[in-house]
Each structure stands twice: as C-alpha cells, then as structure tokens.
Amino acid sequence: MTEEIHQLFNAIREEAEKRRNAFREAPVPKIHIGMATCGIASGAIETKKAFEEALAEQNIEAQIHTVGCVGHCYAEPIVIIDHPASGFPPVFYHEVTAGKAKMLTKLFLAEGDPRFEHVYGATEENELIPSVMEFPRFNQEKRVVMEKCGRIDPEDIYDYIAESGYSSLVKALQLKPEEIIREVQESGLRGRGGAGFPTGRKWELARQARGENKIIICNADEGDPGAYMDRTILESNPHQVLEGMILCAYAVGAGNATVYVRAEYPLAVKTVTRAIQQAKELRLLGKGILGTDFDLEINVFRGSGAFVCGEETALIQSIEGHRGTPQHRPPYPVERGLRGQPTVINNVKTLASVPQILNHGAAWYRSIGTESSPGTAIFSVVGSVVHPGLVEIPMGVTLRTLIFDICGGIPNKKKFKAVQIGGPSGGCLPADFLDTPIDFDSLTEAGAMMGSGGMVVMDEDSCVVDVSRYFLDFTQKESCGKCTFCRVGTYHLLSILERLTKGEGKEGDLEQLENLSLDIKNGSLCGLGKTAPNPVLTSLRYFRDEYEAHVSEKRCPGKICRALTAFYIDLDKCARGCDICGGCCPVDAVFSTKNRKKAIDQTRCVKCGECKVACPPDYQAVKKVSPPSLAPFIERPPKI
Amino acid sequence: MDEEILTEEALILNDIRSHLTTFEKERGNLIPILQMIQEKHAYIPREAIKLVAEYLEIPVCEVYGVATFYNQFRFHPPGKYPIKVCLGTACHVRSGDIILENFERKLEIKEGETTPDREFSIERVACVGCCALAPVAIVGETVHGHMAPSKVEGLLLRIRIEKEKQEREKLTISGNN
C-alpha cells in the first residue's frame, strides 16, 4: 500500500518539479502579477494587459505568472519582476498601473534599468537593492496559513505541489486516523472561526460519533463587512484548504465534503471549483485517493449572503434549502448535523493550518504563538493605518507591534484613539490595551473577541458611537429573527444609538443601552445575538465620556456624526475670489458674501466635507466644528 | 416601453421554466435554483417564485421566505449601469455613506432601487476587498477608488456623455445606410 502511494505521488511530484524547473530555468524574464480580487479591483487586469501589449510591441520574450494575493493591499497592484540577465535580483514593485507597466517593460526588461525610484524592494538578500524582508511589514509576520499565498499560481495544482504541497496527505495516508487526530490535538490548534474551540477535540468527537455518511464542511461564509482573509486564501492557495479538508475527512472517516463559500466571492468560487477538478484528475481527490481505498468527494455550495450562516447550525439549515436560522445545540453538528449525519464544520484558516502541522509536526506549531493559543492569527487591518491589508502574526504579539510597527502606524500625524477588533461581534479597545498580547483569551478578557479577525484602527478624528452604530446597523439587519431579544433588542439598541448620533439623546439612554445589551446577550440562542452588543458594551466601558458628550452637550468629540457637526468658512482666512469650494459643493450650499468671500448655507449643507478638502492649503479657511452652534451665522443674500 | 418590458418578462419566465428541469426536485436545490435565476436574469421576478414553488412542490411562502432571507436575491431588475457602493468597515470610516447619499440624490432613487428608465440602480455592498482605496464605488464592472462627492457627479456625467455619443454614432451609421 505504502509503496503504491509513494509511486503515484512521486510521479506527480516529478512532473511538478519538471514544470517548475522549466519555468525557472527558462532564459527569459518572469513577471509575477498578483491577481486576486483585491489586485483586480486596483487594476491588475489592465496592468497585465499593458505588460502583454508592451512585450509584444517591443518583441521581448518574457513569462507572465499570475499569482494570488500577498495581503499587502496598500501596494496593489503588485508586480515582481525577475530579470536575471539584468544582474538585479527579483524586484518588488507596488502600485503598478498600466502606464508603469509599459515603462518598466521598456526600461527594465529591454534596457536593464530597474528604475530605482519605483522599486519597493528586492525579494531576496543581495548587495544592490534593500530586501523587503528588512521591512517590518514583512519580517515581523509569521506565515503559516498564508505562506504560499502570492507565490504560487492558484490555478495550477503543480505550482502548489512543487512547493511541497500535498506531501502531508502522503504522510497522513500512512498513519492511522487516530494518529492524525492526536497530532492535531497535540499541536493545540484552535478553530480560527472566532470562538477558538480545539480542533483536535472536534475531530475526535466526530470520529467517535455514529453515522454512515459523515460530512466535512469548510466554512468560508465570511460575513464580517471588513474581513476578507478567507477569500484571499481561497483565491490565492485553494489547494492548501482542500488538502486540509482531505486530511480532516480521512481523520474522522468522512466520504463527503462541502466548501460553503459566499456567492459574492465569484473568483473564489471559480478558483476552488477548478482546484477540486485538478485534484480529482491527479487522484488526490475522488475515488481511491492515491491508490488507497479512501474516497472523498468535495463539492461547492454557494452561500447567498447571510451573516448568521457563519453559525454552524444556520449554515446547515441553508444547505438544506431553508432560511438560515440557528438551531438548539445539543445535539452538536459533530453528533447530528447536515442531513442528520455527524458533521465537522471548520473555518478556512483552521483547515489550511492542518497540512502545515502534519508537515512540520505538532511541536513546531506549538513553538509559534502562546501557550493557550498556539499558531498564528490573520488580521485584516483597515482604517487609519499607513499599510492596511492582511497580516499574519504569531499569537501573543501586542497590538502596538501590529499597528505601529507592522502596519506603519497612523497616517497624517494623527493620534491613535481606538481599535475595533472582531467586527460586529468584537469590541472597541482604547490605547491602554495597546500592550495587550493578542490571543483568544486575552481579547475575550478585554471584552473584544478574535472573531473574524477584522480590525479597524481609529484615529482621533473618528467617533466610537458612530462605529458602534455602524456595527449595530449591520447586526440588526442580519439578525435572523428567531430570538426576540436579538430581533427586537438590536432594533431598539440601534434606534437609541441613532438618536445619540443625531443629537437627540436623553438622560437614561446610556443606562438603557447597557441593560438592553446584557439582556440581548443572555436571551439569544446563537453567537450573533450573544456578541452583537459587544461593540456597544466595550465602547461604553472605555469611552463613556464620548457617549456622554453626545447626550448632554450634543457634541461629537471626533466630529463625525453629521447632525452634530457643522462646516463654516473663516472669513479672515478665505481668499477673495477663489471659487473652488463653491465649484465642488454638490448641493450649492456655498455662496458669496458681499466682499466675495464665501460662506456656507447651513440649511443646505449636507456636510460631505468636499469644501474642506478642496480649500487650498494656503488658506485652510473651511472649519469643522461640533456642536453646530459654534459655527457663526451668516445670512445668505436673496437670489437676484 | 411598458409592452417591451412585459414581453421581456414573459421571455424570462419561459427561460426559467426550461432551466428548472435540470434540477432534481429536492428541497436542498431551492437555493441553487434561486441563484440560477438571479445569475441569469439579475433579479427574481415575482412570478418566478410561484414557478419554483410549483416545481419543488412546496408552499409559495416558503420560497418567498428563503428568497427574502438572503441578501443575494433581489426583486427589482437592476439598471443598465448598476452602481454598488461599498459600505464595508473601511469604507464606512472613510465616509462611504456620504458617497451613497450623493448617488441617491443625483439619481433621485434610494438604495435598492432602479431609475424608472432602468438606466441606473444603486445597491450597497459589504467589503469588496480593496480597503486601501476606500471609499469605493463600483459601476458595472469597474472599481472606482478614493471616491468623493464631486467624483460622483463626474462619473454620472461621463456615463451620460458616452451614452449620448454612442447614440449619435448610431444615428450617423443608420443615416449613412
């Protein structure tokens, strides 16, 4: 048996290596372009087209290698040019527009000048160009799940195999299922979906459960409006997830598996579907995997976009063709799940970690991260940071390191105010927590939650009340309606928050927010309701003064809530005759006063802030104030 | 115009009818069927819900319940230029709602609606994944990053000008013939 597995797999690996070497040794430059959704959104398709056209025009031979996403969103579209003949190492370029692509083709590929002013760094150590590995955004990360993302072509299974892909499957097929489960248990891997349930324990329960047709589900129903790591992984390296699913199926004894991925992620759906097909062709999936008697079919189910379907019982309901309403647990899905069968539901990141654990061993995995939360965490850091994007760090790194060192800190010399972790289920932490190590337990203790890994960094010009309102607006819309506390409670919470942001808050509102939040937490069945009040509770705990300013002074300290702010033009600073603010105002609220200086008609102003952006830096005459009563009143002359 | 729309809808229903038979009559196929309709026709007509219910032999209210539960399904035909405004977390903190409001004001429709001439429709979407470009709006297939209220106006103006140009060209071509 063992021999047959090796024989079959060695043939595949040889083919992969042959292809890899042929690509590497070809005496032409290689252009690697990041083509995941984020790259495409920033214009990677145009960039690729520009390269192709320029290469054809100038008759240069080069290979274009489309890869996934490395997670450096601030730098998209990203291109790495490997041009050995020029004597330079592979060079990393950021924000490569179509024009830049044409220029690089001509000057670098044809003439050998890498254009230092556009270089971001080299991708390997050398003496000519500083390596990106010296930058904190690169060297402080620890890539376990996303190790191969952005390096391999997600549409080519051989690319993955050449990077030692599927080798842990070969290893696993020679082990007993129990041995795999033990290895996963020893690694201490905890579910990356947010709650952090020990994965090995889940698998063990499923293995012990009675059922003929056990099922594995990969949960890629990423619903948090600000998190996109699952999509990136599926788009950039789908085979690592598939490999994890195969390992899981083998360990628990399942013959069917489903990838539950959002229909809003068309590229991810396409990439995974193709990956399944390719794996089947190589007998890494399907009937008789690598010559053994282990069969596994994986299909793709497209989720229709309901946040609550991230909850496992709701997810099962939706696959069965019902509305996604959570069910009572127990029985847990590992005992009785989809179609009454024992079902293991694991997050994308959890499954993608497993091949790495089996490859490098449980002890290696334990050496990363903290004692209670081994391994890495992936965050999508957005908001007021210099380098937003996906960051994979070992558990236990502090928030300060993550935000200020890795992501470059707050732009425009503004002050840090808060960080919102875990999206709609998470909480808002102030500067005091910057030195908190990030892991499942410490975040829960602070009132936040690992959740989906969404992280919004807020500077002094943001309003925690408004952010709470934003998340409540989201959870209120996404509440499935089953539990009264969640359905009616979130609605009521939201209406109080809306009143606060409109300056209609009254005494007792804050107490009611608190009480209602606790009631919702206690009275809801699933994670959505239990965690929905977290953004409110934590911000109330740490930023009560801001809430109080909204209620008693009708003032928004961050000057964000539009009903509580006003714009006015400082007549001492305004330049006579400069009409730029009037020109950009979408509602004609700017008018000329007698001496042709400008003023704002408060009854018309929609407070979009265009005039403030447009006002030339020499004048900076447009001021934003809160409360609105601080803006001086200037009467608009009647129209003639 | 109205008649045109009616025949169009009849064609859509016929098409749906012919595709239904490719699915087995299982409750588990309800969502895939609705997705098929949504993808082929960009919305689920009222009559289609009845068709699906009859086909799967389940009550109409069940189909309606499922279709309205999930965000993917819409019940109005989108415009020729569907506008999606990202209101993911990153776009929200960079005032994505102001962009949405500007589109709503300029087109005189609300989010989720289509202009009476079926040219434009506005939708709000969660994160499209280019947070570094926030706030973001997507018109058709094109992503427009770093949106600002004045850009909204420019965008709509550009579409209108291009449309007029195309119509003029069409006229000259048919004139030449």
TrEMBL record, chain A:
* Assigned keywords, A-Z: 4Fe-4S, Iron, Iron-sulfur, Metal-binding
Q: Which PROSITE patterns match?
A: 4FE4S_FER_1 (PS00198), 4FE4S_FER_2 (PS51379)
Q: Which GO terms describe its molecular function?
A: 4 iron, 4 sulfur cluster binding; metal ion binding
Q: Which SUPFAM superfamilies match?
A: 4Fe-4S ferredoxins, Nqo1 FMN-binding domain-like, Nqo1 middle domain-like, Nqo1C-terminal domain-like, Thioredoxin-like
Residues of the 4Fe-4S ferredoxin-type domain: 565-595, 596-625
SMART domains named among the record's database cross-references: NADH_4Fe-4S
- Superkingdom of the source? Bacteria
Record carries keyword Protein biosynthesis: no
Q: Which InterPro entries match?
A: 4Fe4S_Fe-S-bd, 4Fe4S_Fe_S_CS, Nuo51_FMN-bd, Nuo51_FMN-bd_sf, Nuop51_4Fe4S-bd, Nuop51_4Fe4S-bd_sf, Thioredoxin-like_sf
UniProt similarity note = Belongs to the complex I 51 kDa subunit family.
Report the protein name in the record: NADH-quinone oxidoreductase subunit
Identify the species of origin: Desulfonema magnum
- Gene that encodes the chain: nuoF2
UniProtKB/TrEMBL annotation, chain B:
Q: Which Gene3D superfamilies match?
A: Glutaredoxin, NADH-quinone oxidoreductase subunit E
Q: Which InterPro entries does this chain map to?
A: NADP_DH_HndA-like, NuoE-like, NuoE_dom, NuoE_N, Thioredoxin-like_sf
The answer to whether the entry has keyword Cytoplasm is: no
Parts of the chain that traverse the membrane: none
Q: Name one GO molecular function term.
A: oxidoreductase activity
One Pfam match: 2Fe-2S_thioredx
SUPFAM superfamilies from the entry?
Answer: Thioredoxin-like
- Cofactor dependence: [2Fe-2S] cluster
In the record's cofactor note, how is the cofactor described as bound?
Binds 1 [2Fe-2S] cluster.
Q: Which family does it belong to?
A: Belongs to the complex I 24 kDa subunit family.
What is the name of this protein? NADH quinone oxidoreductase, NuoE-like
What taxonomic ancestry is recorded?
A: Bacteria, Pseudomonadati, Thermodesulfobacteriota, Desulfobacteria, Desulfobacterales
